């Protein structure tokens, strides 16, 4: 009975971890609710100081309205969405591999004014905090790590469900240990992904906040994304705990029958 309860709980939790991780991975890939409201971080460009960010533009073009930039940019794992001043998402980019955090490229790609776009010949003309630009390679390596480990966690969770179902039929120690091994991989993949993503964007958020008075760009974390991702971590951990309680096979103790001496 204990085995059945543990296996059922483990299967349910592994399935929950898989679904939650997939939802986090799919965030901001399409402009459909609630996917378009799941993102790692949101860039607020509504107070962008054009004269500091684009110092080479003529004075007549140095206004936020002239650029045609979106007020908000929601950064996902492998795509991003743009939103208006009411934070309503208007469009999302197509998934294109691992999404790198490149604020200069985001600004350049979203300038709708053709006259302004023609004047910006290179990313070097877009000025942003040196602290942010100098460590861009380091940030993006962490973003890649977060994306790859999340995929590992998703794959391991899916395989763990299969192993769990096999364990219902095959009462072998090998099947039990394979299931436990996959649950460990799933948990480690998900917690590394959640940890690196959270740490990276908290650091970028603080870097932008310290320069907000100069550039007018700030960032906030996507609470929906991290709630879903950390919930998948919790489900994977509980799955591992329940699998640890599963026994490989049933054991029974046979008490020898004592022979009564003949009188």
UniProtKB/TrEMBL annotation:
Presence of keyword Membrane: yes
Protein origin, superkingdom: Eukaryota
Subcellular location: Membrane
TM stretches of this protein: 147-169, 181-204, 224-246
Keywords associated with the record: Membrane, Signal, Transmembrane, Transmembrane helix
GO CC term, one of those recorded: plasma membrane
InterPro entries: Claudin_CS, SUR7/Rim9-like_fungi, SUR7_domain
Endpoints of the signal sequence: 1-21
Main location: membrane
GO biological process entries: fungal-type cell wall organization
Membrane topology: Multi-pass membrane protein
The protein, known as: LALA0S03e06502g1_1
Lineage, highest ranks first: Eukaryota, Fungi, Dikarya, Ascomycota, Saccharomycotina
């Amino acid at each position: 009975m204990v085995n059945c309860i543990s296996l059922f709980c483990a299967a349910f939790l592994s399935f929950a971890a898989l679904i939650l991780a997939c939802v986090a991975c799919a965030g901001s890939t399409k402009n459909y609710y609630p996917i378009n409201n799941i993102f790692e971080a949101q860039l607020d460009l509504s107070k962008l100081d054009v004269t500091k960010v684009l110092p080479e533009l003529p004075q007549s073009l140095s206004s936020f309205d002239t650029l045609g930039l979106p007020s908000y940019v929601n950064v996902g794992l492998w795509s991003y969405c743009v939103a208006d001043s009411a934070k309503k998402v208007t469009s999302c980019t197509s998934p294109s591999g691992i999404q790198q955090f490149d604020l200069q490229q985001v600004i350049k790609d979203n300038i709708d004014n053709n006259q302004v776009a023609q004047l910006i010949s290179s990313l070097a003309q877009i000025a942003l905090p040196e602290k942010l630009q100098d460590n861009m390679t380091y940030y993006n390596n962490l973003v890649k790590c977060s994306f790859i480990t999340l995929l590992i966690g998703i794959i391991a969770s899916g395989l763990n469900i299969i192993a769990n179902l096999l364990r219902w039929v095959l009462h072998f120690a090998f099947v039990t240990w394979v299931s436990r091994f996959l649950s460990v991989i799933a948990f480690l993949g998900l917690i590394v992904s959640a940890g690196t993503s959270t740490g990276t964007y908290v650091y970028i958020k603080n870097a932008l906040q310290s320069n907000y008075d100069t550039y007018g760009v700030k960032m906030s974390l996507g609470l929906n994304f991290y709630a879903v991702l950390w919930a998948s971590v919790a489900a994977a951990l509980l799955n591992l705990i329940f699998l640890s309680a599963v026994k490989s096979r049933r054991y029974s103790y046979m008490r020898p029958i004592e022979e009564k001496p003949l009188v």
